[in-house]
Design brief:
With 291 residues, the chain is an alpha+beta fold. The protein contains 6 helices and 18 strands. The protein is 21% helix and 39% strand. The protein has an 18-stranded mixed sheet that branches.
């Protein structure tokens, strides 16, 4: 394998050593899919990305995303973090926006003066709904801790999740996945990850708290999940969770595993369509070379 430059970032982080860790490899076209997967296993973050070239293709940069277990068509914090690397390390910090060519399609990311990056996700797809008792059993919760005013529903903006509404922060903290029961369920579902949320927060300035469990991808709990929160934004808009069809909220995640994260969620309904934007900060904390 040729020497390959890589960066380590904290994404959806308000300060260093928080948020979700990401490794980004540059000029990776010479790596095989097998090598990329082995590198992702070696790094063992939730995701590792590979920018195939410093040159654009069809107005965007070709990028591949790998979890420790497999390649995925889309993921949120890798999109935001990789765009940060492209803007600052490849384009010299001069770009207002960049586009990533992912397996799910082209995803644009824009940069605002306050340091936040915003990605527009693809249109949400709403799938199967599930009985509360099934997810309560998987999560080790009493059925009374699930907010039955809203459905448990599979949602995808490129990577599908179960969206599970809980009543309060106490239930959110208590949730613990029974891996055997979870894998039995997801054998027959499109969604493989579980996102639980509640309308209480650890920090008073935030609106909702989130936890995400993705054992299927080799990540028991994710500190910050842009793809899952994008699904959640669409869900909140569809079901008028806050009493209106548009969403503009601060979502916190990762507190239960010592990686506090902040994701900004916006969803705008335009007729039958829902436009979804997820924002957050990224910071490079290390740079190195694979040899």
């Amino acid at each position: 394998m040729k020497r390959t430059t890589f960066y380590i970032l904290d994404v959806f982080a308000e300060k260093r050593y928080a948020g979700n860790q990401l490794a980004v490899f540059r000029n990776a076209a010479g790596l095989s899919s097998e090598e990329m997967q082995k590198i992702a296993q070696e790094i063992n973050f939730s995701e590792t990305t590979f920018i195939l070239s410093d040159e654009q293709v069809n107005g965007g940069f070709d990028v591949r995303i790998f979890t420790p277990n497999e390649e995925v068509p889309f993921a949120g914090h890798p999109t935001i973090g990789t765009a940060h690397v492209i803007c600052n390390e490849i384009l010299g910090g001069a770009a207002d926006s960049v586009t990533l060519n992912l397996k799910v399609g082209q995803i644009p990311v824009t940069f605002s003066a306050d340091g936040y990056s915003w990605m527009r996700q693809v249109e949400p797809i709403f799938g199967q709904q599930h009985k509360p008792e099934v997810l309560a059993d998987i999560l080790g919760l009493d059925i009374s801790e699930i907010d039955n005013r809203f459905p448990i529903e599979e949602v995808s903006t490129g990577l599908p999740f179960f969206i599970v509404p809980l009543k309060n922060l106490s239930a959110l903290k208590k949730a613990k996945v029974n891996k055997e029961k979870c894998f039995a369920l997801i054998q027959n579902t499109v969604a493989k990850g579980i996102l639980v949320f509640c309308p209480e927060s650890h920090e008073p300035q935030n609106d909702i708290s989130v936890r995400v469990f993705v054992d299927y991808y080799g990540v028991p709990e994710d500190p910050a999940t842009g793809s899952g929160n994008g699904c959640l934004a669409g869900y909140l808009a569809k079901h008028h969770y806050f009493g209106q069809e548009n969403v503009d909220v601060r979502s916190e995640q990762g507190y239960e595993i010592g990686r506090p994260s902040l994701l900004l969620l916006k969803a705008e309904q335009r007729g039958k369509n829902i436009n979804i934007f997820v924002g957050g900060k990224s910071m490079i904390v290390a740079q190195g070379e694979f040899i």
